Hints:
This protein folds into 3 domains: about 5-155, Immunoglobulin-like (Sandwich); about 165-305, Sandwich (Immunoglobulin-like), CATH 2.60.40; about 330-475, Sandwich (Immunoglobulin-like), CATH 2.60.40.420. The longest helix has 13 residues, at about 10-25. It is globular, with a radius of gyration of 22 Å. Helix content is about 5%, strand content about 40%. It is mainly β. It is built from 4 helices and 34 strands. It has helices at about 10-25, 140-145, 190-195, 465-470, and strands spanning about 5, 35-45, 55-60, 70-75, 80-85, 95, 120-125, 130-135, 150-155, 165-175, 200-205, 210-215, 220-225, 235, 245, 250-255, 260-265, 270-275, 285-290, 295-305, 335-340, 370, 375-380, 390, 395-405, 410-415, 420-425, 425, 435, 435-440, 445-450, 455-460, 470, 470-475. Strands 1, 10, 11, 13, 15, 16 and 18 form a 7-stranded mixed beta sheet that branches. Strands 21, 22, 25, 27, 28, 29 and 31 form a 7-stranded mixed beta sheet that branches.
Amino acid sequence: MKYDFKYHLSRRAFLAAAAGAAISASLRPARASAVDERQIKVAPGEARFSGKAGPPTAVWVYNGAVPGPAFRLRQGQPVRIAVENRLSEDTTVHWHGIRLRNAMDGVPGLTQQPIRPGESFVYEFTPPDAGTFWYHPHADSLVQIGRGLAGPLIVEEAEPVAFDRDLLWLLQDWRLNSDGQIAGGFGGMMDASMSGRVGNLVTINGQASADQNVRAGERVRLRLANASLARMMALRFEGHRPVVLAIDGQPCDPHEPEDGRLVLAPAMRIDIALDMQGDPGSRHDVIDDFYDGLAYRLTTLAYDQTSPLRAHPLAAPVALPRNPLPEPDLSNAIRQEIVLQGGMMGGGKLAGIGGMMGMGMPGMNGGAAWAINGISMTGDGHAGMGPQFTLERGATCHLTMRNETAWWHPMHVHGFSLSVLSRNGSPVPRRQWQDTVLLAPKDTVECAFVADNPGDWMLHCHVADHQMAGLMTVFRVT
């Protein structure tokens, strides 16, 4: 499955769009006001990761495919998505990164009743932000995402943004047996209490190791989304200089990534501008080298033989128009802190919250391996669980997240985007907003947001094993 969204712009339209993006961060409402109607059927299916000649792998699918359909919505236009569950177990859909009302957030037991087998549920929301998002289940998350349930969701800017092509790579990580089938053992103790379920095959839009065809001289908007259960990624585009335009759907000041590596944790998205300056017919690898000694080729940028699209490179990419996020009032902020604890530290000890778990090991048999502020919330969501903290609607929250563990944690907040202020005491530049903030071992990150969206909201690690084994909490906006 290839996601390649092409824009056919005249030179005049190209220049006008570029100028508009450079001078204005204001957002106009979408022209269309009618409700955009969509459908999703969740069911067992199969995928061929190596193409038609490869063996079929039994997976779970949205609308018959892995990944699910790439929904392209309009900023400010209402959407209604009917989800039919044809699995043999409960499911939901979480619209990751979308700032929507609480009842549509897709957390079973917290924001909605699960969608039972044979039943349907209709999600209705109006996306306020343009950008790159995705959707996935929030019921039995570890198994359902691990068996393939994920799909991209693009919210188009109210006014077109000028690129020669708009591409999306939804990255998934699979743990397969020698027969090409998904390995069992979900939620094992070692995965739960250490780095999570990292697989042995990575796919782009459901395909492994396929070339990405490009043309010399073109400028591509490449949307990267990591839908893996646990795999961290650090992508290097050999011979190219990507420019980061947005993180987690929210535009930032355009910049080249540190050391040229794009670090992408599970659930994160990064939009880049990629100028194809290679020679016609040349090939350039994209390498993932996050894990020491385990670098591999993710894909290859394969230039066709045609002459370059333009004689001279374009000027530096312009900033994307900003979304209508409320600005935190740091002079009058309520301070909250969450401390991440636990994980395997040797000797079977659950660090920071009492050592040995009775006679068992941390993470064994679905037990707790992690905690936030000393409290472990296992599974996907619970009705009646008291919030970690409560905020009045409209208040600014200055949130400190402190990682006391030896492991990496991408912390995802539902219903909001966070203004990332500092990391380990150093200011974070480029006005970055994120819904999934990656904490390295022993990191401390300070963020802020305006509590303008009422309800009980999840805050959890998006390494699915960690979430299911306790690294999850709830906060309330009244």
